[in-house]
Amino acid sequence: MAKTLAALASDVLRATTRPARSDVREGVREGVREDGYLRLEDYGALGDGRSVALSGADGSIDWWCVPNLDSQPLFDRLLDPEEGGRFSITPTEPFTVERRYLPGSNVLETLFITDSGRARLTESMNSGTAGRLPWTELARRIDGLDGAVRFRIEMRPGRRASGASPYQSKIGEYPVFHVDRVLGLFLHSDGVVVERTDEAVTGVLTVAQGQREVVAIVAGEDEPLVVPTIADIDERIDISDAEWRQWSHRINYDGERRPAFIRSVLALKLLLYSPTGAIAAAATTSVPEGIGGKKNYDYRYAWIRDAGYTIKAFLAAGAQMEAKAAFTWLLKRLAEHGPRVCYTLDGALVPDLSEIDVPGYRRSKPVQVGNTATDQNQHGVYGDIFETAARFVSCGNILDASSAELLSHLADRCADAWRQKDAGIWELEESQHYTMSKISCWQALARAVELADQGQLPTTCRDRWSRERDRIAQWIEDECWSETKQAFVFYPGSDKLDASLALAVRFGFDGRERLEKTLDAIDRELGAGPYHYRYTDVWAEEGCFLACTFWMIEARALLGQRDRAEAALAGISEALDRGVGIMTEMADPKTGMFLGNLPQGLSHLAHVMALDVLGGQDAC
User: Is the pLDDT score of 38 beyond 70?
Assistant: First the structure.
């Protein structure tokens, strides 16, 4: 059945993104399964604060790790189109679709249009009135709007790269599916007719005008299961939507760009792992940065950089509770493990790298879990944590004595370490005196001095931090500026450029004239239409990095170049208007095709910060 559905979707799926007026995406584009794969822009993301599911425009949920963001996937068709798990609800006849998120919500709506009628699919990772449920509940509601539409259903758990063999059993009166330690229920309303085997639940349903059917999965790992009624699950779809809307209503941003701002903040909220406060970089692993390439990484971990930037984005949005939870988690990890680059969502060190024997997205290998970045030396962690602390304090908050002592020790460590080479913001194998790393050290000590002057940090080493800050600034001016390039270069003696240097403007690094010239050089050499590559000569291996473009927009605006910033924002917004508002890490500048893991926190948070600056918000 799976191949039949894939072939049907490939032949007939025409995806239209048409959100309500309160959302930002408009326009029409084509979306098909090619060799079993959907384009990444054809996915929407669902989440409940613990896990994230990716739902495709053809009605197939192709990725869902259960019960947590970093668990093994229950559905992994994203990386294994033939044998991977999926949960599909697809019309049996040719169809077109219109998709949107409900306004101010992470509840997703897909309108299927066939010759025989129209039906609406509403999808939610459910929560309750008291917040996240103590189990995972993926709910899918199908409403008949006119005529009649017949759907084919397939719920097929993945085999975990042949490491598990799904099976079904009966416990009491309930048929239960098992995948290793995951226990789950496939629940449905009376109008859904299904057949069950060990490996799958398949079936059909037909909805006529005014008819509603509901299907859902309730699952957990090594825990008892609650068996909710279909009526309760259906009601919780609306409760979840109301909870999302209530949360987003409090977002601190006004003006015509508010829908775009809220959509990115909602995407960031999906990546906040509520059991601990950690912020995942993305919800997937091994989605390639270049099709056929080897830059396929596991992003289901919490990076200090990404977490710090996301905390700032939450603060800019007025989401104080999320920012505080994430900041506390980050400080505790630094106290426990020291300034590592990344941690697991539970706060442990990231495991060693291991490969998984599945085809990969569009046959791009390796597929892997774990990440080698955790053991790298990256000076950027100092700037990231101190910028986060400074932003937290600027919002009227205070640091406790334990956190202040921790930050003071980190400032001392930065003052000693800045002269060393490191792997840089891009986690490169070659250690160098990367310019951006030195600016991050300058940033850390500059914020440390400011926090000490505000009484937030002990002042014992304040004067030493000040002197080292000034030495770093002078070193950057002397060693990292190229008269030939008229720009700060990637590292001393190089003629390469690095787009992350746009962040130096946000960080308040001195030298307006040189920073303006550096931005111009980045546009000339790393720009590709509305996009930007990360650094010189990387275009053969990967697409353009979306966050870099938003950093450039933010920098232009901060330097008073509002017209250029607005024009750049219009260009990238048009280029990204290809889905329901979920961003990946990168895009192919020639085709616009999305690349890399998704939803990508760094892309969304950079978007939030650019809009914040352009909107002239008075957020802290």
Answer: yes
Percentage of residues in the chain with pLDDT exceeding 70? 94
State percent of the chain over pLDDT 90: 90
| Per-residue tokens: 417 | 């370490």
Residue 8's pLDDT band, with cuts at 50, 70 and 90, is: very low
Quote the pTM value.
0.94
Which pair of structure tokens corresponds to residue 202? Answer: 């398949």
Domains of the chain listed by start with CATH number: 2-248 (2.70.98), 262-615 (1.50.10.10)
**Tokens of residue 373, six digits:** 């970045």
Q: Would you state the structure tokens that stand for residue 63, as one six-digit string?
A: 């990725």
Q: Which residues, at least 6 apart from 238, have a Cβ–Cβ distance to it below 8 Å?
A: none
What integer pLDDT is reported at residue 27 of this predicted model?
Answer: 29
What are the tokens at 333?
């990890």
* Residue 617 confidence (pLDDT): 63
CB pairs under 8 A, 24+ apart, for 254-259?
A: 254/615, 254/617, 255/615, 257/24, 257/611, 257/614, 257/615, 259/22, 259/23, 259/24, 259/103
- The three-class DSSP label of residue 7 is helix
Helix (H, G, I), strand (E, B) or coil at 17: strand
Integer Cα distance of 110 and 88 in angstroms: 13
Task: Give rounded-to-5 percent helix, strand, coil for the chain.
Answer: 35, 25, 40
Q: What residues contact residue 310 under an 8 Å CB cut-off, 6+ apart?
A: 268, 271, 272, 279, 326, 601, 605
Integer Cα distance of 554 and 609 in angstroms? 7
C-alpha atoms less than 13 angstroms from C-alpha of 442 in its C-beta half-sphere: 22
Q: How far is it, in rounded angstroms, from Cα 600 to Cα 299?
A: 9
Average pLDDT over every residue of 110-120: 97
What is the rounded distance in angstroms from the CA atom of residue 168 to the CA atom of residue 164? 13
Per-residue model confidence as pLDDT tens digits over 430-464: 999 999 999 999 999 999 999 999 999 999 999 99
pLDDT 10s digits, 327-347: 999 999 999 999 899 999 999
SS (HEC) of 195-248? EECCCCEEEEEEEECCCEEEEEEEEEECCCCCCCCHHHHHHHHHHHHHHHHHHH
- Contact 183/225 with Cβ under 8 angstroms? yes
Rounded mean pLDDT of 388-404?
95
List, in order, residues 6 or more apart from 74 with CB less than 8 Å away.
64, 65, 66, 85, 157, 158, 179, 182, 184, 219
Q: What is the mean pLDDT of residues 28-37?
A: 66
ω into 134 cis (within 30 of 0): no
**What pLDDT, in 10s, does the model give residues 519-565?**
999 999 999 999 999 999 999 999 999 999 999 999 999 999 999 99
Q: What are phi and psi of 415, to 5 degrees?
A: -60, -30
Q: Which residues contact 476 (CB under 8 A, 6 or more apart)?
A: 435, 438, 439, 442, 488, 509
